[in-house]
Amino acid sequence: MSLLFIAWRNFRYRALSSFLTTLSLTLGVGLVVLVMSVYGIISEAFVRNASVGYNLVVGPKGSTLQLTLNAVYYLSQPIENLPYTEYMEFYPKEKRAEMVRTFGGDPALGERDGVYAGFMTDGYAIPLALGDYFGEFRVVGTTPDFFELLNHGPDADQPFTFEEGRNFEFHNEENSYFECVLGSRVAAQMGMRVGDVMNPTHGDPEGKGHGQGFQIVGVLDPTGTPNDRAAFVNLEGFYLLEGHAKPIPDDAVIVLPESAATAGPDEPLLLTIPEREVTSILVRNGNLMMAPMLQNRIKESVRAEAATPIGEINKLMTMIVGPLMQALLAITLITCVVAAVGVLVAIYNSMNDRKRDIAVMRALGARRGSVTWIILFESLIIALVGGIAGWVLAHLGILAASPLIEARTGVQVGFFSMSTYELYLLPLVIGLSLLAGIVPAASAYRTDVGTNLSA
Predict the structure, then answer these.
(1) What does pTM read for this prediction?
(2) Percent helix, strand and coil across the chain, each rounded to 5?
(3) Of 447, 428, 433, 437, nearest to 373 (Cα)?
(4) DSSP code of residue 209
(5) Count of structural domains, the chain
(6) Is 405 left (phi over 0), alpha (psi -120 to 50) or beta?
(7) Is 92 found in the same domain as 121?
(8) What is the Cα–Cα distance from 427 to 425, expressed in whole angstroms?
(9) Predicted confidence (pLDDT) per residue in 367-388, tens digit
(10) Taking all residues of the chain, what is their mean pLDDT, rounded to a whole number?
(11) Domain boundary residue among 307, 330, 362?
């Protein structure tokens, strides 16, 4: 009869004690695995979603991390707004003059190239205007270029596609400037589809409604990015909502747009350039090697700040999320140590009841080393059963929560989704349990045969 088989019989003979000891280890291991998995999910969600089609986010002076969280993840409140003229600085004078003719403003704006135009050959700049909500979701005012020029995915090479409908247009006869596209999660949770009307509220989810609604013309396919939980509206319609026009200074030079002379009585007039603001600007310059130069040039301006999304998220993971998760991991590892101590106490407490059995084994020819290995094998069995059961329990929980995790973060997880740290967990648990088994094994080694046989 092998020593391992004898240890297994001892494990089964003390069924209740073995079960409770193994359960405590199972819960400890399961907690550690959950913490590791949560850290992996958070890391993947942030880092993957930082891989976007643009390389700079431009906003008002302030925290670059807050700017990134607001413009990329729609998580933070805007710092402030930038004047629309700051957005115009990314375009050559021909495009700037066209903007003046279309929207109205100071003709001098179209008489020079933008300050950053030299960096933008074959690049693009896409404005964002935030501040409204649709239920709990952010409303993002932008241009059709958002879905035509940007990509998503881990390598930022996947174009946006529509589960239903199409991209919104700058203007059309049917809906004027009031068209919108919903992210997949917004559409599902709010029960909206193409043909419905979306009515945003001002400032926060419980804010005052604007009265003016946007016709839903498209619903995005799931992207696994923050865009799934945003409602995108035509920037021109966003500007026309009540309270969104910036007061015009008394000394402002304004030429009305060319469309003002031909607009019908029911056609809304677009905001002029001095009345416009943007929350942030998504920028991809033509030559990516010149991105640091463009970033430094923007930082030299009085109003604007530029952030690199990937760099800011790496800072967040290194400075905040990483240390927090390490602290949680340390706490859960302490839980494993406590569970290992439980293994020690459970086996050691059973030694008084087993001294006579050990003495009989010794009298029948078992060596001290064999008895010692039987006790260590019992610790090993508890470690293996508890460790494997804890891993399975944690991953069953992850599998059960996978639909919610995917909806919230865009990260797809399954039963076998695991972090690299988990590969070291079972050897660690086995090592701790074997260490815990040394004390009761030493007690078995020192058992006196004559005394315990005569007891």
Answers:
(1) 0.75
(2) 55, 15, 30
(3) 437
(4) B
(5) 2
(6) alpha
(7) yes
(8) 6
(9) 665 666 777 777 788 888 888 8
(10) 81
(11) 307
